[in-house]
Design goal:
Elements: E1 2-6, H1 9-19, E2 23-27, E3 42-43, E4 49-50, H2 56-70, E5 74-77, H3 83-98, E6 106-109, H4 117-124, H5 132-159, H6 168-186, E7 191-200, E8 206-214, E9 217-218, H7 227-238, E10 241-254, H8 262-273, H9 277-289, E11 291-293, E12 296-298, H10 313-326, H11 362-365, H12 371-386, E13 392-405, E14 408-421, E15 452-464, H13 473-483, H14 491-500, E16 504-507, E17 510-513, H15 515-527, H16 534-548, H17 554-573, H18 577-587, H19 589-592, E18 613-617, E19 622-626, E20 635-636, E21 649-650, E22 656-660, E23 667-673, E24 676-681, E25 688-691, H20 703-710, E26 714-718, E27 725-731, E28 734-739, E29 742-745, H21 749-754, H22 757-769, E30 782-788, E31 794-800, E32 803-808, E33 811-814, H23 826-838
Parallel strand pairs: 1-2, 1-5, 5-6
Antiparallel strand pairs: 3-4, 7-8, 7-15, 8-9, 8-14, 10-13, 10-15, 11-12, 13-14, 16-17, 18-19, 19-20, 21-22, 22-23, 23-24, 24-25, 26-27, 27-28, 28-29, 30-31, 31-32, 32-33
């Protein structure tokens, strides 16, 4: 019997049916281990060594896989056919090697581009080894993303409070959204007029012709720029005679587009079905993994993470046969169509997204699918079928018309088109870009060259230029693909991260950058410009692709990147906050200083009249404040152009209105209660309240202080050893820091808002060394993390009251006398833990390991 490892349990069940009783198919449930979210998981000084951890759920599954492999004849790694799938297979193999269950068993790698019996059996008949360069590319990408995130984030916490983190691809995608918003803010509208004539043929058939020239000058879209100019032209045309100078009917052909890739599927699903990218991929995943049809489960589409546009030869033949059956022989071209992608950095290792069986028409499949699945499958089927159909034959007619009034002349043009043969349009009609202003061409009546046409009326319409539209998910994905930023498998996750971190919001399918997102993007552009440049990110993607092709060394790419990046971060650490604010004031001027209706200087404080407004970085984030603080308490929510004169005032019942929350726009009020003064954000049961701490006077409360209180508890940073967040707050017994259940008191309330990560770690360590308080009962910090226990959880070395010991969960095993705690290996630790647990020293069943001899 062979063990087959796939990613999802749904696939495991289906594939086991196809393979039979000689195989046992198990699911890894996606990735089985990851870099822990703490500093030091990637070590540039140790040749980019990477420390991986296995979570509890994955550990249990890996134990099951290891147990099955131990009794099996061989191991077949059948995770998804992309870089992530290759990485999962590599991780599984590495862990099984550590567990020493492979011995001399045969190990092979297979990939299923479709979950059908034929595809699965063909893949099993053509095994290969794990693709080392593809794994290297994954490791490089993972290390790059980790190093950027964990190196930049602490800088952001210090220099730009309120920014949660920055990512390599995520930051560039955010820049695209923010740059578009800046374009919109800088856009100056222009008025223009368009003129069209409704004309009548001698056969009394009306048509429209648009003005293209006047008095010998060719007119562009914005050339008629005043009402007076438009009225003059209209008066001339009202008295003019019109003649058709030429009529040209030109046959053209329109060819179909290729089948879907990941990005084009997401774009089409957004514009046609209104699906968000994440919803599209969830539905596509279900279609790929399989639907039960007639008592059997079968995958309906090929793998949905791909940037290839080609189809397998057998699929092309099947599509051509289906075209003949569904549409007729005249729709089948003489030769098959072959496509190549135009996307930058595309890898065409996989097919485009297509049906696994073209004979399964959308109409037939609808009864087996839910509404979303049926709509997406129909779109995929039609697009793939259309890609192999005849072109559409269109006759485009252009009529040039001259208008003459005395010595003045004008030129007009009428355009129409007629579909002579619909071709691929019978299956799938391409939609225009959702933001396109083009109108559909109209069919023209019979018009003969040289004949007079009569004026019915002249239409003059006023227009105003519009700024470029905000990105939708679909148009942003399209732009990222054009620029070569990210990969098909990353687009959905990137967009979700931007939303989850509240850097952008989605309103009517448009991406709108939040104030904190624009601050982050402006900060990165000002001080890390190279790393958010589109070309730099695309070039790095190209290097990752060259790694996967075996043309570059992954560690060499990391060394080149890290040398420059770490230097840039070191430089920025010395930067003064005032320098940051000056740069952001200039970069975000339209957002920070919106124009005032009275035309006065938007940078002068409207309250005191003498102070200069500027961005301020409070403990909670950014807002606009006056340079005369504390004498002037003016503050304004960032980006609140509707309330340029500030937010302080008197509320009901004598409550003092301090302003609004910059992120929620809820009103913040100073109130007096039964137990003294407090601040409140919002109303009702959901309102957030915070009592004024000891030493804070009610009459000294302002917007910034109130926001600082309401933002508690405050995240200080991730503990460098545990990776868990340290927070600071004010409790029943005063100010404190908290880490993993351990509380440590702070000396003053101000410390809660100013304490940095290094000092917080020291305070926590001092408290733990005293052996008091906290959920952990003063558990000493780990001296060394040895790695994951086979049954889940970390194995660490700690220094206790009675000397160094090994810890795993509730099991503590003392080290032998004289043993250097920093020299303990994981295998030695597992033996000590097992012996201790066997004696009743812990609540977990011991891992016995492998017997020797």
């Amino acid at each position: 019997m062979d063990v087959v490892v796939v990613e999802s349990p749904a696939k495991a069940k289906t594939i086991n049916k196809y393979l039979g009783k000689n195989y046992k198919v198990l699911a890894s449930f996606g990735h089985v281990r990851d870099l822990p979210a703490k500093d030091g998981s990637v070590k540039p000084d140790d040749d980019f060594a990477m420390s991986w951890t296995v979570d509890t759920a994955s550990a249990k599954r890996l134990t099951e896989i290891a147990k099955s492999v131990k009794d099996a004849d061989g191991l077949i790694l059948a995770t998804d056919p992309d870089r992530e799938g290759e990485a999962i297979s590599w991780h599984v193999l590495e862990i099984l090697k550590q567990k020493r269950v492979l011995k001399d068993k045969k190990i092979s790698r297979v990939v299923f581009n479709a979950i059908t019996k034929q595809s699965v059996l063909e893949a099993m008949a053509n095994p290969r080894e794990i693709d080392g360069p593809l794994v290297d590319a994954y490791l490089a990408r993972r290390a790059l993303d980790y190093l950027v995130g964990f190196t930049l984030s602490p800088v952001l916490w210090r220099k730009l409070p309120g920014a949660r983190s920055a990512g390599r691809v995520q930051s560039v995608a955010l820049r695209l959204v923010c740059d578009r918003e800046s374009e919109i803010e800088r856009f100056i509208r222009e008025d223009y007029w368009l003129i069209a004539a409704i004309l009548d043929t001698p056969r009394h058939e009306k048509f429209e012709a648009r003005l293209t020239g006047f008095e010998g000058k060719r007119l562009q879209k914005l050339d008629i720029s005043s009402q007076a100019q438009a009225d003059d032209i209209k008066a001339m045309l009202d008295g003019a005679s019109f003649k058709a100078l030429s009529v040209e009917a030109k046959p053209t052909k329109r060819n179909p587009g290729p089948p879907f890739t990941t990005s084009t599927l997401q774009q089409a699903a957004s514009s046609r079905l209104g699906f968000a990218a994440v919803r599209t991929m969830q539905v596509a995943q279900r279609l790929y993994e399989g639907i039960e049809i007639g008592g059997e489960t079968a995958g309906l589409i090929t793998y949905m993470r791909t940037d290839g546009v080609q189809m397998a030869p057998e699929a092309i033949e099947a599509a051509r046969a289906s075209i003949a059956h569904e549409f007729g022989e005249k729709y089948v071209p003489e030769k098959p169509r072959y496509y190549s992608t135009k996307a930058k950095n595309a890898q065409e290792a996989h097919e485009a997204i297509r049906p696994t069986d073209f004979s399964r028409t959308p109409t037939e499949m609808r009864k087996y699918l839910d509404a979303d699945q049926a709509r997406l499958y129909e779109m995929i089927w039609k697009r793939a079928i259309a890609s192999q159909m005849q072109p559409a034959e269109i006759e485009r007619t252009t009529v040039e018309i001259e208008a003459v009034n005395g010595g003045r002349t004008a030129a007009l043009r009428a355009v129409g088109s007629v579909i002579r043969f619909d071709g691929f349009l019978a299956a799938y009609a391409e939609q225009k870009d959702e933001d396109s202003e083009d109108e559909e061409d109209k069919r023209l009546p019979e018009i003969r060259a040289g004949e007079q046409v009569d004026r019915d009326k002249i239409n003059v319409t006023a227009h105003t230029t519009e700024p470029p539209p905000r990105y939708s998910e679909a148009t942003l994905i399209k732009k990222m693909e054009e620029l070569g930023i990210g990969r098909p498998s990353t687009y959905t996750a990137t967009l979700k991260t931007l939303e989850d971190r509240e850097y952008v919001t989605v309103d009517k399918r448009k991406l709108i950058p939040e104030a904190k997102g624009r601050l982050l993007s402006a900060f990165l552009e000002s001080f890390f410009e190279r790393y958010v440049e589109y070309d730099f990110t695309a070039d790095l993607e190209e290097k990752l692709d060259q790694i996967s092709d075996g043309k570059l060394s992954w560690k060499e790419v990391l060394r080149d990147f890290w040398r420059d990046f770490s230097g840039a971060v070191d430089d920025i650490k010395e930067l003064r906050v005032t320098d940051v604010l000056d740069a952001l004031n200039e970069e975000l001027a339209p957002l920070v200083f919106p124009p005032r209706e009275d035309g006065s200087n938007p940078r002068i404080c409207p309250k005191c009249g003498s102070g200069n407004l500027s961005l301020k970085l409070g403990k909670f984030g950014a807002f606009v404040g006056c340079s005369n603080y504390p004498e002037c308490s003016f503050t304004r929510q960032l980006g609140d152009a509707a309330n340029p004169n500030g937010e302080a005032g008197e509320g009901e019942n004598g409550d003092k209105v301090l302003g609004k929350d910059p992120y929620t726009a809820e009103e913040i009020v100073l109130k007096s209660g039964r137990f003294g003064p407090y601040v409140q954000r919002g109303d009702g049961k959901e309102a957030k309240r915070a009592s004024l701490p000891k030493g804070w006077a009610a009459d000294a409360m302002d917007h910034e202080k109130a926001l600082a209180l309401l933002s508690l508890p405050r995240d200080v940073g991730q503990h460098p050893e545990s990776g868990k967040m340290i927070s600071a707050g004010i409790g029943r017994y005063g100010p404190f820091v908290l880490h993993d259940g351990t509380y440590a008191n702070l000396e003053s309330v101000e410390d809660v808002f100013t304490i940095g990560l290094n000092r917080a770690v020291s305070v926590i360590a001092e408290k733990q060394s005293k052996g008091k308080g906290g959920r952990n009962g003063g558990t000493p910090a780990a001296l060394k993390d040895l790695g994951a226990h086979p049954d889940g959880g970390s194995v660490t070395v700690r220094d206790g009251k009675y000397g160094p010991y090994v810890n795993w969960g509730k099991v503590n095993a003392t080290l032998p006398k004289g043993k250097d705690p920093m020299a303990v290996s994981l295998e030695e630790a597992l033996t000590l833990v097992a012996e201790k647990a066997a004696k009743g020293g812990g609540g977990k069943k011991p891992f016995r390991g492998k017997k020797k001899g």
